[in-house]
Amino acid sequence: MEFGIQFFPDVNPDEKPADQYWQESLFLTGLLDELGYTHVRTVEHYFKSYGGYSPNPIVFLSAAAQRTRKARLITGAVLPIFNHPLKLAGEIGMLDAISGGRAEIGFARAFLPHEFARFGRPLDESRARFDEGLNQVKQLLEREDVSSEGKFHSYKNVTSLPRPTQKPRPPFWVAASSSDESFIYAGKNGYGIMIVPRAADQMKKWIASYRQSWREAGHPGQGSVMIAFHMYTSNDREEAYETARPRLDGYFHSLVEATQEWTEGLQSKDYPNHPKMMQFLKSGTFESRIQQGATWIGTPADVREIVTRYDQAVGGLDIASLQVNFSTMPVDAAERSMRLFAREVMPHFQKRASAA
Amino acid sequence: MEFGIQFFPDVNPDEKPADQYWQESLFLTGLLDELGYTHVRTVEHYFKSYGGYSPNPIVFLSAAAQRTRKARLITGAVLPIFNHPLKLAGEIGMLDAISGGRAEIGFARAFLPHEFARFGRPLDESRARFDEGLNQVKQLLEREDVSSEGKFHSYKNVTSLPRPTQKPRPPFWVAASSSDESFIYAGKNGYGIMIVPRAADQMKKWIASYRQSWREAGHPGQGSVMIAFHMYTSNDREEAYETARPRLDGYFHSLVEATQEWTEGLQSKDYPNHPKMMQFLKSGTFESRIQQGATWIGTPADVREIVTRYDQAVGGLDIASLQVNFSTMPVDAAERSMRLFAREVMPHFQKRASAA
Questions:
Q1: Do B98 and A67 lie within an 8 Å CB cutoff?
Q2: Assign residue A47 a region: left if phi > 0, alpha if psi is -120 to 50, beta otherwise?
């Protein structure tokens, strides 16, 4: 099992201004190599506290590459629907060059109705734009002198620069949330999958179907599954709960605020399961989330037990991507928790390989 | 007078791969604070060796911000025509946050016909897209809850995040090349100007008209003029010429290759002077460029004399932005030259203030 960290800003300027948020995140990134965390990841979102400090994850990851010599730099994720493929392919080439070949690129369809509205993109174009965008970026990275006639973007005789440092290109990931097809698509195409925790039996089914389609397509190994968790550990359970509870509430508050359209009757053919999924994510409590293993909070012994249980329940956890500074978490608390986790939890879980 | 450095990649993957180019550039960026250089700048270009390693200058500057604590991070420039204003405003906010408020944003209209063709943008939309894009980004940075109905991009009720660290926003610059209006526009709006060297009498006229429109608009001071120069200095003049000559040729070779349409009969109402300007840039020789002061190459004494002459000829040079690793220049030669310039040339020119 491998452990990395994920920065998912979910504060507004009154709670923590962006310069403070990003500089604290860079400081925490500077601990990765020493402590054995293997990746740093961030999101693409806009306009609201839920993710909005990170409209281009590649801009942060490029800075982060200067604070770690070993960790992989992972977009979690970029959104083809809001990006021009010529631009995105070029930025990926730059990040791969600047980091000496440590970039990994997660793609997602986006799911916040307010972002679609502000960019003037119909929700029902989501899947089509994702498919076209991902495939165009893939081609632009893998080949020279590419032409493409798309529904949304077309171009002729393009050699994207910089050519990727990793050949033929950085590994790809796909964010899957709630549809069987996403897991099958990722496995078939040899991409890793990125997920947020859901009920363990559902996760187990999805991961199994991902691995099956991976193998059936003839890819070596069994693919890569990355799951995101909120993590806060302290030797004092009461302190852990007191510190993490309001911040976890803060995170879900910003999620609910950013996704309210889904729970107020919005429907889209491209998002058949989102109203139900958002209700599910809203309905959890601090205790139920810990109980389900979706949130790793407590003493190191508590967290070891949660991880063991979750690993077994989902049929094998490859890579955990830990949110360590969610909401208004003070940076020194996040640092202490990262150090304690590295010392008391990490060694209990054997390392497995990554790569997608 | 202030001195900074500019990274303008002009190599292809066979000459120097992008990971080597950018990592050498980051190493050179790490010298700035020690040596007294006050900014680092890079370009936005695509698809060819002339600038093509840098499709998004903000991605490099974000990494560069980790190698210098004092230098300003300047886009030179971003191109509104190839960027969505919601995306660009967000990236500027991120860079300003990550650098602790050291971002400065130069905007340009773009001028390479092959880029317009590959992005599917007509050359004759250049000015309209520049004007709309710059003003939308400006609004998005300065204000919250912005709506805009543009010819090219429209949106409603947007608060761009991150809010800029500098208030109301990072300083703006405009790249001006060959039209009187660009200089007047920049002065009137309180933006700095970025230029590449032309005949000194022409430069003097333009700079004077910029400063006049700056003052007439009631802005304090006299504005900021940044001029780009190729620089290589060595105690041995012969070594300086031998090292710099093939690399300067390499730079102009990549320029000519990227702009050939302009010298082969292309016309655009938005670029009335470009065919002539490109002929001019093509026609120079190594010796004539040094003679004109457009290129700072020679011993420290030679360079001091060139700078003194140019400063007087154009009526006062504010900020020089030095290309130190052009073409295949070895990084150790660039380092030696930067150190020698800092020791033997810089102190002879008094510091003046920046800020636009």
A1: no
A2: left
- Bridge partner list, A107: A78, A174
DSSP B294: S
Q: Give the whole-angstrom CA distance, residue A63 versus residue A5.
A: 15
- How many residues are listed for chain B in this entry? 356
Distance CA B222, CA B192 (A): 10
Pairing of strands B146-149, B103-107: unpaired
For chain B, which residues make up each domain, given as ranges? 2-348
Sign of CA dihedral B44, B45, B51, B55: positive
Residue A71 contacts by C-beta under 8 Å, 6 or more apart in sequence?
A: A4, A29, A32, A33, A37, A38, A39, A40, A64, A102
Report the residue from B55, B94, B98 with minimal CB separation from A90. Answer: B55
The two structure tokens encoding residue B158: 């947007």
Q: Which residues of A touch B82 (CB under 8 A)?
A: 84, 86-87
Which residues in chain A are closer than 8 Å to B92, comparing Cβ atoms?
Answer: none
Distance CA A288, CA B129 (A): 52
Cβ of A62 and B62 within 8 Å?
A: yes
Say if the Cβ atoms of A19 and B165 lie within 8 Å: yes
Q: Work out the minimum CA distance from A52 to partner chain B, whole angstroms.
A: 6
Mutation target among B49, B58, B87, B99 for the A interface, most CBs of A within 10 A: B87
pLDDT digit string, tens, across residues A119-150: 999 999 999 999 999 999 999 999 999 999 99
Is B13 a residue whose pLDDT tops 90? Answer: yes
Q: Do A86 and B13 touch (CB under 8 A)?
A: no
| Interior/surface letters A227-241, b for 16+ CB within 10 angstroms, e for the rest | bbbbbbbbeeeeebb
Tell me the three state secondary structure of residue A9.
coil
Return the number of other C-beta atoms located less than 10 Å from residue A350's C-beta: 7
Residues B104, B356 contacting (CB under 8 angstroms)? yes
| A160 contacts in chain B (CB < 8 Å) | 47
Looking at domain A2-348, its CATH class is alpha beta
Chain-chain contact of A159 with B47 (C-beta, under 8 angstroms): yes
Query: Which of A25, A62, A88 best probes binding to B when mutated, by most B CB atoms within 10 angstroms?
Result: A62
DSSP string, A73-109: EEEEEE-GGGS-HHHHHHHHHHHHHHTTS-EEEEE--
Prediction ipTM score: 0.96
Distance of alpha carbon B321 from alpha carbon B331, whole angstroms: 18
The residue with tokens 């899947």 is A127
pLDDT at B356: 42
| pLDDT category of residue B351 using cuts at 50, 70 and 90 | low
List alpha helices for chain A, DSSP H.
18-29, 32-35, 57-64, 85-98, 113-119, 126-142, 180-189, 200-216, 237-258, 260-263, 274-283, 286-292, 300-314, 331-344
pLDDT reported for residue A351: 56
- Dist. CA A355–CA A192, nearest whole Å: 8
For B79, nearest residue in chain A (alpha carbons): A87
